[in-house]
Batch of 2 targets.
Target 1
Amino acid sequence: MNDSLLDKRMKGKVISVHSSRGGTGKTVIATNLAATYANKGLNIALLDLDFRAPSLTTVFSKGIRSPIKHWLNDFLDGRCTVEQALINVSEGYNLKGRLLIGLANPAIEAIRNIMEKSRAWEVTAVKKLFSLRSTLFNDMNIDCCIFDTSPGVQYSSINAVISSDISVIVTTLDALDLKGVKNMLAELYDAFEKRTVVLVNKVFPETRIWSSERQKDLISKMEKDLKHPIIGVIPCYCDVLQAKRTSLLAVDQPSHPFLRNLEEVAEKLEHAI
Amino acid sequence: MSASENKSPTLNAKVLLTRLADEFNQVNKKIDFLIELNGKMLKTQEEFLQRITNKSYSSKDIKLEPDAMALLSLPSSLRKTVMALYKLERATAEELASETKRLRAVESASANQLVRLGYLKKKREGRRVYFYIE
């Protein structure tokens, strides 16, 4: 892969990672996708927009070396700038490029506070998510920004979706997940005319899709049904499920097959943007 | 053989395109006139309401939030304008048209309708009218 080409494709782009329900592996995908791109030399900002169930503070605990002064909640409330709300964790993980993370405050008080926000505040939040592009891409030399959103249809996730360039919907093959994705695509993504791709994750070995023929067949059926491109099919790995949430696979186990699958997804995403 | 039939196909296409552009300009002017007329009618309506209710009534007073959920309930043509304004922060109908790739008149009509509904505000600066989300 030509790095300058990768740089050009991803430059100034915002990717949101979303799902219809919880438990699809959305955060594992978002964090490892960010680390994969950073390992390729890109400067990445990963923002936790799942304000109701923040998780990045735990995932990146190894890389956070000083007490957190500002949260993304503070940025959206106008109490700090986006620069102040970002933490550079690249050194902690020896990444080739810079990885900056913006964290959602996991304190119950902060979660309750977010749930009580007015519609006027939500409008300001969307404006801020749009305006952070200029700071990230022009002032901070960030190449690409990834939003890890909350699952389903709620303000924080729709705000993230409408302010991004492309959305990756992570789903399992569970009927409820698929039904939810279908509804979201029709009623949310198509309404906003957003470029959207679907990533199938946690596919059980029993489905025997591992021959390329079967995989092609599954992808073709799903694309016909969802009317959107399927960007990848990732098997369910027990060790990924059982791994500590503080383990960043892209750094701790770079040769893991999950990562190989995700690298393919990352490359397809570069072309889809 | 007539003179026009003697012209080359490129020349004929150029004449046709010039005529089409003229027609579009005429349509644009008519839409602008209708928008202006609509604005005057609304003002008359406000004045009438003010007289009969003895209360100040103005569409400028109405404020609705164009938040994500509200956007979902808007018709797609209006939603597109709000989405463009989120990106541009404030814009003229022409700037909106360049963002949405629609006609200036379409954007002008859409943005003015959103102002009347209370989702957007507009401000005149010299000869230019800027739309924005408050």
Target 2
Amino acid sequence: MDTDKFIQLTLDGLTLGSVYALIALGYTLVYGVLKLLNFAHGDVFMVGSYIGFGVLQALGGPADPAVPVWAVLVLITLAAMAGCAMLGVVIERFAYRPLRDAPRIAPLISALGVSFFLAYSMQLLFGAQQRDYNTFALGGGDLYFKGFHIGGVRVPLIRDIIIVSAFVLMLVLWFLVNKTRTGKAMRATSFDREAAAMMGIDIDRVIVFTFILGSALAGAAGVLFAIRVPTQVSIGFVSGLKGFTAAVIGGIGSVPGAMAGGLILGFAESYTAGYWPGSAGTRWTDLVIFSILIVFMVFRPQGLFGRADIKKV
Amino acid sequence: MSDTTPQLPPGPDAPVTSPAIGRDEWVARHLDRRLPPRLGILHERLQNVPWFAWLVLFVAAASLLPAITSSGYVRRVGFDTVLYMLLALGLNVVVGWGGLLDLGYVAFYGVGAYSYALLDSPHYDIHMWSILSIPLVVLIGAIVGLLVGLPSRRLSGDYLAIVTLFFLQLFQTVATNGDQMFGHNVTGGANGLLNVDPLDIFGHDIAVQHEGVFAVAYYFIALGVFAVVFVALRFVNESRTGRAWRSQREDPLAAEVMGMPVNWLKLTAFAFGAAVAALSGSLFAALNASVFPLTFYFVLLITVYTMVILGGQGSQAGVVLGAIIISVLLELLREPSHARDLFYVLLGAGLLLTFKLSRRLAIVAAATVAFGFAAHAIADAIDHSWVAGTAGAWASGWVIVPERLASWVAPVSYVALIAAALGLTLVRGLLRTVLLVPVLYLATFVWENVMLAKPEPTRYIVLGVILVALMIVRPNGLLGEKRVEVV
């Protein structure tokens, strides 16, 4: 019984953590090349979940989709990724690029403004109420009834889909960053922007590419999040904050760090919910995560995988 | 890079005789090459009025507000504005002088409000005299500020930003769930704390309502607190500590080499801001007689940030001005009929500022009006229901307001407006002027049809746009000094 609870909580943590990791990757990629905390990222994630919802409705709704179930899932994810990538490029072009040489605090404040603008634009156009994908109706509940067992715990298909797609996306990202020419340019830019520019790397292109990657991941994360839990405008802020914390814990700027940080946060949240004395665990997850963040800030500010920031004069 | 010339602030006392070491001569003499201001001698005289004279004038003018109007609503808005002014002054210490991005600022406001509420309410049946509880609340705010700043003391602004932002979230969680904190009801949870005592003078309560109308006393108390805080912070800024704050903001490394305790300076700036926020929080709690968790969240944070950025970080007069403008703006946007007029006024003012009094202004204005009538006539000819809605009185024959808005119109027109406005920033010259006309009309259409119907999101969208646009066009705000990055 107790191992079953543990397995169940681990699964919860893995599901949640893989979504956080995808969000954290967006923060970390952008921070790597621009040294900018992109506060608007959480809201891009939220917009992604709404795009997925819209496309799902356009395909005929969950109860009676025009295409097979797997195609529905692929299509909404791809649409959200494409939409968010475009959004990311627009945000970069109009809100961050003019401020690239401004004092550090300027793009941060601009990012806050963009975040606010996105959140309330969505509220203006689509209202503040929850949007439920209602994936239960998709394929007659197959996503929830099918699946396999670990011990006495049933793992529904929908969790497999979330976890597997998140890890596939992370693998693709790892490949793009480490094995392609553009990835190499990204790493060079992240290491030293000026030196990279002098070596003939088109910095603007690299930055745009980074925003495309990060925002597409956020879009995918939005759909993967919202196929299980209803989405609403306000999740942008909270999920963004969690993803951001995950990136910092893992070592901001580090790709494996973001994945690790996301999983740590996911586990912290699910174990707190499950093992907190009494039944009020879900109320105090923020407290536990904040404590983890503070512990990292004090003892290992560069995060798990981050480089210690040594300032040369 | 922007193509404007970097502008050094003029030396406070000595006119620039010869450029200091490390200054570019051409840049340093920039001011000499400027044309004299249009108002000439008057402008110069105004600049020489000392700050305290302005302050006295301002407070005197502000105290006249209750004499002008007996409306409880206006007085209430006045009180809220003074509270915003206080909040902006506090944030200015952290952001403007300390150069720290404190995203948990309104949590300290909340800490202050909740502390006051716990010290003066039937919740624990403590009813402390205000003269004791308010200093205590300020102290609590400062200590909490120090504690939050402490873990990020070695770190750059980015890490401070994340810790403080998460602190804001944590405050929210604790306040919302604090009704079951280890079996005790500490914060009242989502229902908040009710029946908080009003302010008192040695035990004699000052009623919030006087004969059913908002009591003027609170307005004057807030104004008094504002004046005291303004002067106190002014003195701090002109002291050793204030100079040290600004120098570590400009270059922490150089400051450290000069022997300044940079981390301690950051912490004190942080704590000062938190203390001012807590002080405002206690006034807030006393006036509203209740506190709720959701008051102290992201929305308020962005509002106060917009005030500070709009007014100009680092300038006290600036942030006060910013607070007044934003507070009044938000209040006007609440009411659709006001919001409608405001839009046309701002549109006109914006055009006037862009084109000055030129022929182009006349052409653009005339073209927009003509465009509107043409579009309206065409829409009317196709289908009368397209224009059958009720628009503002004098814009009714001009802007298209359909009887019923099809559900796709709102998102499409809104997104089209954003795309068009962004696209407009990419083109130059004549093309921009020509394209401006339809974009203006589209903006009016969206405002009348989409945004007026939902004042709540509209208010905050406006704030977001102001923040982004200001950072790009005028990062120093209305009255702030232009920061020159010396490389």
